[in-house]
Specification:
Blueprint lengths: L4 E5 L3 E6 L15 H12 L9 E2 L8 E7 L2 H12 L4 E8 L7 E11 L4 E4 L8 E13 L2 E8 L6 H8 L23 E9 L6 E5 L20
């Protein structure tokens, strides 16, 4: 596995980059995961005896890459989890669609339900039992042929939400074989990147803002990403 990329750390939090196709936490695949990688990093750097405590306060789908924050103690984990649950964290994603959305800016609302047996999320009627409302705002930033680079701000935190909602408007994401049937051999990377994360530090109460563009490889190399991360 590639070396852990750390954007920031102190005695309360660790902010890292999750590569595409790495699990957030251990699963049946047995592949190395982000939670384990961060635990090893802290244990080795600070010569901790036994397993280091690292709190998982949010998740990214395995195919999705981008910024994640982990807590280094239970108090910080509780406070950060409350921010994510209360929608007090601002998350900005960048998505590449296989079709240009008809509206260049939009607000998408769907009702989603997870099919646990097949690990897939479906758009269902609002009356369906067990379903949950999903909302996001988006803005088209660039267009290259049939592909569009879209900035996405999810207003809810449903699993697979961005992928399902864009597939729902007939604009599935690049490389998404689950929801878009895009079995492109050009790149193994899903066109979805968690590029910016803003939250309140669990102890100092400072506003923490992190931003990081994806690596310059397909599908991201088709677009000039850096300009959206310049300060």
């Amino acid at each position: 596995m590639e070396e852990l990329i750390v954007l920031y750390e102190d005695n309360q939090i660790v902010v890292v980059i999750k590569p595409h196709n790495v699990p957030t936490q251990a699963d049946e695949s047995g592949d190395d995961d982000m939670l384990s990688k961060v635990k090893r990093y802290v244990k080795e750097k600070y010569n901790k005896e036994g397993e280091a405590f690292i709190g998982l306060v949010h998740r990214l789908d395995r195919p999705t890459g981008g910024i994640m924050v982990f807590a280094r103690n239970s108090k910080s984990a509780s406070r950060l989890s409350a921010q994510f649950a209360g929608r007090d964290v601002k998350k900005t994603y960048y998505a590449i669609t296989t079709k240009v959305p008809q509206a260049k800016t939009g607000h998408l609302v769907h009702n989603l339900k997870k099919d646990e047996k097949n690990n897939i999320v479906k758009i269902v009627p609002i009356s369906e039992e067990g379903s949950k409302k999903a909302e996001l705002d988006y803005k088209v930033l660039q267009i290259e042929g049939e592909n569009a680079l879209v900035e996405v701000n999810p207003l809810t935190g449903r699993g697979h939400q961005i992928r399902v909602q864009f597939a729902g408007i007939n604009c599935p994401l690049y490389g998404d074989s689950k929801y878009g049937k895009d079995k492109s051999k050009i790149s193994n990377n899903l066109g979805l990147w968690a590029g910016k994360l803003e939250f309140i530090h669990p102890t100092t109460k400072d506003k923490m803002v992190f931003a990081c563009p994806p690596q310059k490889e397909l599908p991201w190399s088709k677009f000039f990403m850096d300009k959206y991360f310049l300060r």
